Amino acid sequence: MTASETLVATGNRAHSHGPGSPVPLQARSERPTSYDVADFPVPNGREEEWRFTPVKALKALFADEPGTEIPKVDASGPDGVVIETVAADSLKVGRPQDRTAAVAWTHAAEAVAVRIPVEAELTEPVHVNVAGLGARGFSHLIVDAGRHSRAIVIIDHTGAGELGSNVEIVVGDGADLRVVSIQQGDHESIHLAQHDALVGRDAKLHHVVVTLGGKVVRVNTNVRYAGPGGDADLVGVYFAESGQHHEHRLFVDHEATHCKSNVLYKGALAGDNARSVWIGDVLIRAAAEGTDTFELNRNLVLTDGARADSVPNLEIETGEIEGAGHASATGRFDDEQLFYLQARGIPEDAARRLVVSGFFNDIIGKIGVPEVAEHLHEVIEEKLARTAELSTSAKAVIGQ
User: Fold this and answer.
1) What is the CA radius of gyration of the chain?
2) How many Å separate Cα 119 from the centre of its chain?
3) Which InterPro entries does the record match to this protein (predicted)?
4) What is the pLDDT of residues 156-189, one digit of tens each?
5) Rounded distance, CA 200 to CA 219, Å?
6) Can you give the pTM of this predicted structure?
7) Tag placement on the chain: N or C end, fewer CB within 10 Å?
């Protein structure tokens, strides 16, 4: 019985997102993938994969046309690391899963490849900066970690304009690779990305997504396993302010035996129309015996007018697993925590900052790169200061 047949057999035939828009409930693994842009119609916002996304703001990145600029990509690393420019189709880890990824694949003629030699143990991170220059552009990045290597790669997205990007990651057998992708474009920038990772036998991938800037940011992360014993640790941190849309979608495809995955994403929202979306899909195929997986998403809403959507999904095709679970929650400040801190003489604004810092502390500790963790703490403090100003202004208006 196919996954779709299973859904129908259990009574899950279809659901609707409004009049005239029936949406079949489709198994995650059965959604179309293609390198051909024509295989993906221009989204209208009623599709399952686009229903949370402000598609009207993305028209430029839906157009099957070359970019009007080439984003500036600078990469540097310690001795031994090979950084080169190659054809974009020189490595195919995963196929585009939506129209924007296919457009970016088609119109990014070249890719920057970062290659970690076999058995290399890097003592310093590799740094890659992808800067938008104010117009529409596409980028393609390859990170290839050789067998039994250990490395950290930091990808920093900055600048302005509209960027469509693809990142392909290969973790060789027995390798340990940490990839940190930071999205901090200016407040009007748009960034749509697809990350595809292939984790080798007994290999470890730490994939970290930090989203702080941008008007619309949508990062799709997909993980597959090339052999048994693979381990993927997927961590995300985001803080959306007024007018920002931060969207993170994950698909972990367990197709090999005795592999692990752990997903932990946390976000905060403050200001009118601050929006976050988190979709976590995990598929355990029939052959993936011994799988151990868990996914968790937590959201903290700091002001009125902000909204967080969180949808965890599990598809399990075998009962011979170690464990599988998911959890999701969205809430406001814990009044008891605030009362406890204020009762001990801590002002309300400071108490709120302490609560938010505590909310993020465990996940920041998992990033594993001190320079990124320190920067994240600083940006969160800046955002909290702006949130406090908004709260003070709102109280002043109410008091008039």
Assistant:
1) 21
2) 28
3) Fe-S_cluster_assembly_SufBD (IPR055346), SUF_FeS_clus_asmbl_SufBD_core (IPR000825), SUF_FeS_clus_asmbl_SufBD_sf (IPR037284), SUF_FeS_clus_asmbl_SufD (IPR011542)
4) 999 999 999 999 999 999 999 999 999 999 989 9
5) 23
6) 0.89
7) C
